[in-house]
Each structure stands twice: as structure tokens, then as C-alpha cells.
Amino acid sequence: MGTEGSYPETTRFNASLEGLRAVASIGVLLTHVAFQTGLPPTSFLGGILGRFDFFVPVFFTLSAFLLWRRYGPRAGRDVSWLRYLASRMGRIFPAYLVVAAGVLLLLPNAYRATGVQRLANLTMTQIYVPGGLAPGLTHLWSLCVEVAFYAALPLLALAVGLLPARARIPVILTVAAVSVGWAWLPFVAASPAPGVPNLQILPPAFACWFAVGMIAAEVEGRLPRRVLRVLGRRPVWWVLAVVTLWIAAQPWYGPVGLVHPEPGEFALRVLAGTVFTAAVVLPYALAPREGLLTTPVFQALGRWSYSIFLVHLPVLELMFPLTGIAPFTGHTALIAVLTLAVTVPLSAAIYVLVEEPARTMTRRIMTRRKGSATGRESTGGPSVEPDVCTPEQSSTTARAGDLS
């Protein structure tokens, strides 16, 4: 168990979360397949798969948990925020730019994207630009939100770190509760409009999903055994997750499909996503053990999950002209199998050829800077704060720490 003021031992690599990222990436793929093949959202299966978009909050919660446990107030050590930001950039942007550029150049629909759309998608600012979402890349709006959390993390850690330990969780809960009202703000409720993007999907709207992970990091290693036993009953939590999906998929709960929700409907969707991500992530984050998610297959898919997330939608869109099947005309199972069959090996290749080399290069650059700064320190020059993990720990933690 970690102690206040010291770096908690519980920051070791959690293989269950690596496997959970695999589940989340495939869940997002399946929700897009269900929509684009026209699976009726009012059917039981169509409703469940249609709400598989709740695996997006799972990504948010995973990142918040893994980064807050390493860089939050419980870490108890000085952190090199320059090193942190460089590692985030090296983790996210290389594969993102390769995929975004490839889609904009090669996907027929995306090739006709406007100059503004191209610039916005290459700079990961598309959610802030009217009409910024480009064909084949529309799913990357969530990555923009994730990157905003990365950028805000140093300020969040500083602000929350000023609070007494007992006040941190109540403050996080309060901010999350206030964020539910985001959709009711007049300028948000009036969007989207001519010249105005959809402000509902800006980062403040999803504070609840990040808060689940942050709170989990705050209580990690401190829960009584009876709570851990409850968290260890995985089937019960998965039933809760599925029931949440079913409720959120009902027309009386909110609009189905891509209908723009009213403020109240959007808030309900965020709350359902909060319950879902808590049910899915907390048992694996706080009561980890060996199981299906720690098997080699899920560990490999977890390593490739960022690229799976990046490439699955353009691959899906290519499946229709390649098979001669028109969108929204069924064949859901066939399109799902074909999309997975192409997405997984392509993602593995991107991981090997882009993600790993970029991460290795980033570590080498920062290690050289650290070594150079250490040399200057010995002669009276400025020093660089040490990172909180060894390079090996940094590699495994970063691998499990990002959305993708």
C-alpha cells in the first residue's frame, strides 16, 4: 500500500488494464460497424452495440487513472513536466499524424476535405473548428478531448496537490458534478450553429469520465478487503455494465443514432457513461488479478489498441466499396469480421513501425537532455527534475496509460 507523501508501490504495471484497452478498442469498432451497416438501434442487439460508444469513457477513465496515479498528488515526488509532456507528444502524435495524413490522401471521401478540415485534423483541433470533422476521421474527436486532459494534468495536479489529502476526492467529485451542467450553458445549448462547432463535445463536458479514474487512483491500495472482494466479482460488474447499456439505448432515455441531444438528454448520456465506465474499469484497476485480459492475445491487442482505434473507421469505410455492399443495408457480422481482419494486422504494423520507434526516440532524447542537465548541475548549471519511473517502468506504464 502506498503512503501519503511517497510514490505508491501500486503504480506497477497492471496487465488487466492493458487487456481492457483491447476490449475498449474493439467495442468502439463494433459500435461503428453497427451504425454503418444499419443495424436497427431499437432492436436489443442494435441498441446494445449502438451504445458501445460508452467504451470511449472507458478510455478516458483508464488514462485518468494511470496518469493520476503516476503524476497526481499521491506520487509524492517532484515531476519533470517537460519530460511528461514530451512523452505524451511522442506517444500520441506520430501514429496519429501517419494515419490522419494517410486518410486525407487516400480515402476517397476524405480526399475531398476542405483545407480547414485538413489543417484542423492534422493539428488535432477539429472539435474547436466549425465543420472540422473530416470523413474517415470523425471518431478522433474523443482523442482531442483526451489530449486536452493531458495538457491540463500538470495544472490539475498542482491545484489538487495544494489541498489536504482528505479534501481531494470531494473536490474532484464536486467538479465532476458541476460539469454535468455544461450542456445547459446558453452558448453550448445554442450550438452547433453556422460558424459555431458542436460545443457539447468540448473537454469540460466529460469531466465525470476522467473523475472516475482520478478517484480510483486516489483510493488505490487503501480499500478494505470487503470492498476488494466486491470488486472481485467481475460477472456482477459486467451485468451492471450491460444493463446500463440497455437502459441508455432505450428511446425514452434519449435519442438513438446520431440525433443531436437536448441538454438534459446529453447529461443523461454522460451519467450513463459514468456508470458504465465505473463498472468496467474499477474492478480491474483496484482489484487486479490474472484472467482472460492478461492472456497473450489480449495483451497484444492492448498494445495495438491505439492504432486499432485510429485506423478502424477508415478501414470500415473501405469495406463497403471493396465488398460491393452499400452502407446501411445490413451484413453486420460480415463487415465486422472483415474490418477486424484488416484492422488488427494493420494496427500491429503501425505499432511496430511507428509507435514503438517514436516512443524509443522520445525516451532517448529526454535521457540525453537529462544526462546533459545532470552534467551542468555538477558544474553549477540548472538541473532537470528526475522522472518518477525508470525508463523500463515508463515504457510499460505509458503503453497502458493512453487513449487511443
From TrEMBL:
Keyword set, alphabetical order: Acyltransferase, Membrane, Transferase, Transmembrane, Transmembrane helix
Keyword Membrane: yes
Pfam family name, one: Acyl_transf_3
Acyltransferase domain: residues covered: 14-351
GO molecular function, one term: acyltransferase activity
Keyword ATP-binding: no
Region (Disordered) residue spans: 364-404
Residues annotated as transmembrane: 48-68, 89-111, 140-163, 170-189, 201-223, 235-254, 266-287, 308-328, 334-354
Protein name per its UniProtKB record: Acyltransferase
Organism (species): Corynebacterium marambiense
